[in-house]
Amino acid sequence: MPIATSASCPPRVGGVADESPAEPARGSGEQVRDAAIAAARNAFAAGGYARTTFKGLAAAAGVAPTVLRKYYDNKDAVFAAALRLPTDPVGAVPTLLAPGVEGLGERLVRFTLDTLGDPQVRDDLMSMARSGASAAALTKSLQDYLDTTVIDRVVTAVGVPDARMRVALISSYLIGVAAGRYVMRIEPLASASEEYVVRLVAPTIQALLDPRTSLPKPTGASS
Asked: How far apart are CA 38 and CA 57, in angstroms?
């Protein structure tokens, strides 16, 4: 049964104070975009995706937020451009949900591997790592980004109980696999075929997305 989607699942906003925007830059639109993308890449490499705000990115680019919004709708769009993702994660959510809960785990695993395994994305991540970004910082930013743009929205649409715990488990598992495969290059995971990785990972993700599957109660919790 198809899952209804709604516009009532807005992206979360970073939790730190915004920087004061600078005066609008006199440069071209390309210069504004390049500056915003550079700021987003620096924040991502430092593990600061969740703390970064649209206003802060605009300030780093030397423009007011209204100027930056001519080129990017929101913070997530800037980060998508900075990572040169092959597809828009937010726009992919309705496609992931449309066939229903059955098979959703497999579709989510494939989406994650296809997106982060894209050669251009992989090269960018490795470039950040070579430039001094730690694997832990990149993994944190990847997890925060995937949570905000995809997993929160998917879990909310499905309507599973214990949603926050399921989001944390799903994103930790998916990003752990992706980081081990594409950033840290852990063998034999790094050289395994995508089909094989999907077969190994999808059943666990499917169980966490299935509202009929209850999570165990915490030790000591009342019944």
From this structure: 9
pTM for the model stands at 0.78
- Judge contact between 130 and 211, C-beta under 8 A: no
Cis link prior to 10 (omega < 30° from 0)? no
Q: Which tokens belong to 43? A: 């924040």
Structure tokens at 110: 């494939």
Residues in contact with 78: Cβ distance below 8 Å, sequence separation at least 6, in sequence order: 36, 37, 40, 54, 57, 68, 72
Q: What is the pLDDT of residues 135-191, one digit of tens each?
A: 788 888 888 999 999 999 999 999 999 999 999 999 999 999 998 998 888 999 999
Instruction: Report the chain's C-alpha Rg in angstroms.
Output: 18
- Is 191 exposed, middle or buried, given 0-12, 13-18 or 19+ CB atoms closer than 10 A? exposed
Alpha carbon distance 70, 72 (integer Å): 6
Amino acid, single-letter form, for residue 176: G
Q: Using 50 as the pLDDT threshold, list the residues of the chain that sit under it.
A: 6-26
